[in-house]
Amino acid sequence: MDYVRTTNPSSYVARFIFTLIVFFASSSTSEKAPYATFAKDATEAPEVTSYDYIIVGGGTSGCALAATLSQGAKVLVLERGDLPYGIPSINTINGFIDTLANLGPTSPSQTFVSTDGVLNQRARVLGGGSAINAGFFTRASPDFINKAGLDPKLVRESYEWVEKKVEFEPEVLPWQAAVRDGLLEAGILPNNGFTLEHLYGTKIGGSIFDRNGRRHTAADLLEYADPSNITVYLNATVHRILYKPDGNNINSYKKLQKMYPFLAELKAIGVLYKDMKGKQHTAVLNEGSLLNEVILSAGTLGSPQLLMLSGIGPAEHLTAHKIKVVFDQPMVGQGLSDNPMNIVLVPTTMPVEISLIEVVGITRFGSFIESASAHINLPLLTKFGSQFAHFVNKTPNIDKLRSEIRRRLNLDLSGLNAGLILEKVMGPLSLGVLELETLNPEDSPKVTFNYFKDPRDLQSCVQGMETIVKVLESKALSKFRDPLLSVNELLALVVALPLNLRPRHINAPFNLEQYCKDTVMSIWHYHGGCQVDRVVDRNYRVVGVGALRVIDSSTLLNSPGTNPQATMMMLGR
């Protein structure tokens, strides 16, 4: 697992091992989704099982990781959600909003609200965020790869391995083409055409939606797995990591620790999990190898939450929740951040295609400009109204909202063709925290992102919004724009919509700083909580605990590029 580090003294040996894995992978059998032989509901799991690797979370990193490790070891994946293939809203581009608006107890998209008053989603399905997101696929910048200390050659090979299964070049239709041309008019140069690379300027990126509008998720990467070596239990919620003091021949072990400082006397040996009927199961690591590990790939919320529930975290916080402190690690849950997103909704004078993120303008001032388009109707508004009402115990009057917008802007929200242009702040620099709210791992933890706490993030947002205004005023977008609606009226439309739970200020449509603060949303690229060099080392091992790693977005110091999903799949590989 250390082959990705150029600084690792055994990297050449590790690269050779990785090459062997790839060789055997090319000659092994595989199975197509939905994996009838190895993906099963956790109610079918034995009370106790043992494996070489136990992966908690079958998300963007976890699926790639499991498929790779299965070529040379027995692997268990414990996923708290179900297969994506039987959920219609996941599998087509038309179902994107339906998935996010689903508030059911087993929804593949679990909605939560940060203390900042921003609605957000976390995945609860095999494939993780790649099963519920807007599909944009792009690689991280070389600078990100260099700072992470990753081997560029293996990074490139791993990206290519992922891309063979899940990446497609989108067909650029009129709305997306107009936004691309508008960005170029606005000075976001050069035109980089279609590329997966992270380059300053305007480009068309890849998509996990094919040209028939069908979604391909990280779960598809399990087609690379050796079916005889992998088991995936679905609807399996991990409650606790199991440990033991590593007392096997303690003198020999201490000698090994001098040779391999990452070895710790406290060692993970397995996990406790429950199926959807509440029955408890135990999965333990096979004995006899120092390589066997528990690997957390439960995501930015799930991995630090599980560490805390298992006694690893800030001692004072754990004690307050009556959790036995196994290892006092004050940095668990720290460094949490979410890239703020702000949007402009653009009612169009002509029909637009249904599209998600395809075009991006990568600026030099720390903002990314992206776009989507759709037909807005009353059922769609009602779904968002229901989601809003669920969290504020007050149902927004959709009819009143429609009436007010019709009166002020002469728009009918019950049937509207619209484009959407958004800006996402790079980084970001503002940091927050994750804390336990309950002892139930099925509940989302308490999350604070502190949007715009760092004034540099706010400045990036303002510059991003100024760029969007230039795009709106471009010749390329003029054929879509209603000439009777000014830019300020478009901003006022967004301010009027129930997009978050934050207070609104009357000057927001006329003051871009206030607009950024009042209408901030999430683009679902939150990260941190188990960061490298703070909770895990440069090989993603949990510092102070043996046989335990974290490999997912919780380890990131900032979000890679315009969308992290390609990089998280690459990292798992």
Task: State the distance separating the first and last CA atoms.
Answer: 10 Å
Class derived from helix and strand content: alpha/beta
What value does the average pLDDT take? 90
CATH topology title of the domain at 88-116 and 167-213 and 339-523 = Cholesterol Oxidase, domain 2
For the biggest β-sheet, the strand order reads: 8-9-20-21-22-19-25
What portion of residues is helical? 25-40%
- Overall outline: globular
The CATH class of the domain at 88-116 and 167-213 and 339-523 turns out to be: Alpha Beta
State the CATH architecture of the domain at 88-116 and 167-213 and 339-523.
2-Layer Sandwich
Transmembrane segments: 12-30
Pfam families: GMC_oxred_C (PF05199), GMC_oxred_N (PF00732)
Organism: Artemisia annua (Sweet wormwood)
Cofactor: FAD
Description of the structure:
Helices cover 29% and strands 21% of the residues. It is an alpha/beta fold. It has a domain at 88-116 and 167-213 and 339-523: Cholesterol Oxidase, domain 2. Strands 8-9-20-21-22-19-25 form a seven-stranded mixed beta sheet. A hairpin with a 5-residue loop joins strand 5 (109-113) and strand 6. Helix 7 (174-185) crosses helix 13. The longest helix is centred in the C-terminal third of the chain and has 18 residues, at 455-472. The radius of gyration is 24 Å and the shape is globular. Residues 1-14 and 247-253 have low confidence and may be disordered.
